[in-house]
Amino acid sequence: MQYEMVIAGFGGQGALLIGKMLAYAGMKEGKEVSWFPSYGPEMRGGTANCTVVISDRPVGSPVVQRPRALLALNLPSLDRFEDAVRPGGVILYNTSLVNRECRRTDVVVVPVAANDLANALGNPKGANMVALGAFVGATEVVPMTQVEALVRETFARKPALVDVNLQCLQAGFGEARRCVEGRDRPAAPGM
Amino acid sequence: MSSPAVLEETPAAASERTRAPVFGHPESLRQVITHYCPGCTHGVIHRLIAEVLDELGVRERTVGVSPVGCAVLAYNYFNTDMHEASHGRAPAVATGIKRGRPDLVVFTYQEDGDLASIGLSEILHCANRGEKVTVIFVNNAIYGMTGGQMAPTTMPGQVTTTSPLGRDVSLAGHPLRIAELVSALRTPAFIARGAVHTPLHVVEARRLVRRAFQYQVEGCCFSLVELLSTCPTNWGIPPHEACAWVEKNMVPYYPLGVFKTPDGGDRAPRPLGRE
Amino acid sequence: MARKLMKGTEAIAEAAIRAGCRLFFGYPITPQNEIPEYLSHRLPQVGGTYVQAESEVAASNMLYGASGAGVRVLTSSSSPGISLMQEAVSYMAGAELPVVIVNIMRAGPGLGGILPSQADYLQATKGGGHGDYRVPVLGPWSVQEAANLTMEAFDIADRYRTPVMVLGDGLIGQMMEPVELPDERPPAPDLPPKTWASTGWKGDRPRAVINSLYLDADTLEAHNRHLQQKYRQIRERERRFQMRFEEGDYDLLVVAYGTVARVALSAIEELREQGRRVALFRPISLYPYPYRELAAAAEKARAVLVLELSAGQMLEDVRLALGRSRPVHFHGRTGGHLISPEEAANRMVEVLEGRSQEVADV
Amino acid sequence: MFRKSLTILVGHFGSGKTEVAVNAAMGMARDGERVALADLDVVKPYFRSREAADALARVGVDLVAPEGDLATADLPILLPRVRGLCTGFSGRVVMDVGGDENGARILGALSDLLQMADHDLILVVNFRRPFTPDPESAVAMAREIEQVSRLRMTGVFSNTHLMDRTTREVVEEGLQMARRTAGMLGVPVVGVGVEAGREQDLAPDNPGCGVLSLRRVVQPPIEGPRVPRSGPLFVLR
Q1: Is the CB of C68 less than 8 angstroms away from the CB of B97?
Q2: Residue C13 sits in which domain range?
């Protein structure tokens, strides 16, 4: 089973970091993974995006035209990748920065107000963690415990940040779970 | 004229004296015939370097880098391991050798087209990084190897095959003063200019070459000695006139002396208003 | 050996260190800056030296010096920078100096752009600079393979006394994948000692003169014959390639290298699920090119399709391998565009269904 | 034709200095004289008298030119022995100097000795070459050569030809222009060159100077061994 996803947002929103954490968690799970960034002029303004593939066997193409899941952190990202997602896939978008509905009806749509949730938790910088938690909740592409361990590891040198980021992560996860609970989901690998 | 001391010598002592070598071949120079023209001072400069390497006892751990220029075949003349560099890149090659094997004594032997024209970037950055190598820069104000074209160091008005009416400074700029240019860098270094057109100057040049290598052996700093040199063949004048030409035309424009020593302090100007 | 998630550039840099390289000379250029950045940080930790040169020209000449002094040394650059390095590459080939050069290709010609490309294939595999010389070229398709081939490149360089190039497209440099690296990868035990190196002459061996200048025509021709003999040996012993789905019959053989081969593989897997008979041939050594193996692999196929991020460079070697024995088709993208698996699959179907035009004679 | 103990041949690129020098030296040697030919061409790295080394050696001409690797080095090598030839050589010396005033600059480096030696400075001219289409340009070149070499011209050698397409008219016309050149310089025409074997076809009727048969010994690298096509050289007598 192979699962391809695109994570996209403004430069600085943490799209590349979210992608790396997903790839890292996948690797820790013993999966084959690849993480491929868009680079160059796109990184300055516009969207910064990366493609992550998590698979049971060696990853074929690291370049993906039709991903199974999209995490759109802002409107341009949704505009650009909305149509690319395979039918039956997942589109998770950040309603704090997207002022329209998702048009697709053949995918699982998960709207999450990542920035608003992070602000409410008193951690405005934690929007990316909210989004990551929500994406894991919506796709179940990697176990949440693996991602939590990763957050602890990432912020090991700044213990004060561990709890606030875990809070954001779990808030996002919970929000997404509530949203997808009871719906048909596309199968995720190894879950 | 003979001195009384010699007259009083015993025959045995006199015989011993005549057999004792007063002028030998430096160990750091191979006993081969060079390709240099009569009156060319490359041979003199080769010898100065070789004598200094012998004196410092570093021949067995010295690696030289020869340039593209008349001294392109210098690797045949020095009795050390040698590299032949591409045109102008000797300071980069020397950097590679020295960084790879810091225990080696590394010198480059370069001429004006090589160092002052195509290799200006390499020499400035090598000096600026403070690579602990020694550069011997032979300035004879002309491209010798390719047959007498204008060099960056060609004198104003000097006729060469590519400045048939004499170097026009309004078109070709003024001759580059390398010792001054390199000594303007803030990195500590030993930078000096000597000449080899008279015996007295040769003696002085030898001191400069010795100091330059000494600094390297002590692991102290980058060192560069510019030596004003002759090219009778391409200048088109006999050797003795070439020596006089150096004195008359080059020395006034290229002043001789030590431009920078590693302990020479900071040459940077003071901030405005604090004079 | 723990798996680590590494960028291709980082993996290449770390692999060089594990292979005993303690010297790097380079000059920044996108998209390979992580290699000098990584090494400027890592080399001092292991007692090595990192020098940021004033230009690619100087960097490659520093390589010439260091390698001549007998130490393992690395540089990396991207297409325009590699062009500047060709001066010293030719000198190093002439003076028979072992170095490893990494080229993370970007789109050209000229300043071009910083996006991925495979447009330096001809420059890399046909010598690159002036004079009759060749440089072994290795084209990895994954981050792990990039690391492995980098380590191996040092051995190949030392064994044959030649510069070796690791040729990656921009994707290899920028993507992250899990990598396993040995703590230390010692040089192969059978490598010849570097008695030719300039380490200071004590009279116990011939004087070392690192040089590519031979004034006499006969001597220079003899030197060239010696180099060609060496290249023949390399062609005999160092051909590397990989095949997928070679068992059973296939109608179409796809030829691609680097990450493009991975795109092709994904496309082929999808087509095979639909019952299409397609196989993949992936050269790993681009010089020496596995001509014979490719010709043998093409015997089963009715047609051959070459995929490249260029206007058709490796295509020339494929045609050299196959002659007129099989129709050869081509699909390439330039300018930094990638080939997507869907695009690749569409072209394969076109060829299979006879809707593609064979590459015309040049 | 060449009477002094030291004959210095100068001229523009491609005027035929080297052929004249080689043939003159070989002629002297065949006459039983001890001859040294000094290759002073430091300007161009090919088509120099050193390429005739074997032919010269066969007739006993002592070729003074860089040897071994240095023979093909792009280096302006003036051998120390050349200075010796200027003063202490007991036979005849022919000097083949590189093209125009750039090549003649090397004579300046020897001028301290040359000025004292019994020498001829001969301008070799081919008016069918672009650099010297007429006597005026030949005189201008002669003056430049005199300036850098610090020597005075003592004669003109007429070497106008068109290789295989040379006719008697070409030689005659060239000789007339050489005479005018010599007149302006105040020196004699010392000789005229014609291709060996074609003397009957080409030699002027009343040359008023010596005629030198020139056998092509030095090949331009672009030509390869000369393939005979026609001409009296290959007519069986």
Answers
A1: yes
A2: 3-183+212-237
